[in-house]
Amino acid sequence: MTNNVCVGVDVSKNILDTLFKYPAGQAAEQRSFSNAKTGRKKLISRLSQMPGAHVVMEATASYHLGLMYDLNEADIPFMVVNPFCAKAYGRSKNLRSKSDTIDANTLAEFGSERPFIPTQMPSDNQLKIRQLASVI
Questions:
Q1: Hey, CA dihedral for 104, 107, 111, 114, is it positive or negative?
Q2: Rounded to two decimals, what is the model's pTM?
Q3: What is the pLDDT of residues 46-87, one digit of tens each?
Q4: For 95-125, what is each residue's pLDDT tens digit?
Q5: Phi (first) and psi of residue 5, to 5 degrees
Q6: How far is CA 41 from the centre of its chain?
Q7: Mind listing the domains of the chain with CATH numbers?
């Protein structure tokens, strides 16, 4: 378990539903940001004020890539989780309901309780191959 802020982000095409999970004793905070450059910039600005903060998000088709680039550029550590693992974790916590806020909370808890293994940015070639493969 970490003493740093763990931020769970449920990424969709237009919205980043975000839950800031603070160290024990402090209430969590839920916020939504646009998944456009301006919204991601606001989230990055907020995270930059929190030393040691790290982000946990699920892999999406491609909606999480913009946030990955922005976090990487700002040197904010992030972990991209396989959606199957996040769902299994939620089930292990007996979570039956599903909403974007619940998913963000599940990701924040996952990142707080499990070892945080930062995701490495894929190379430009890997991203191009991935983009080509999704078109086929």
A1: positive
A2: 0.86
A3: 999 998 899 999 988 788 989 999 999 999 999 999 999 988
A4: 777 788 889 999 999 998 888 899 987 777 8
A5: -75, 125
A6: 15
A7: 6-135 (3.30.420.40)
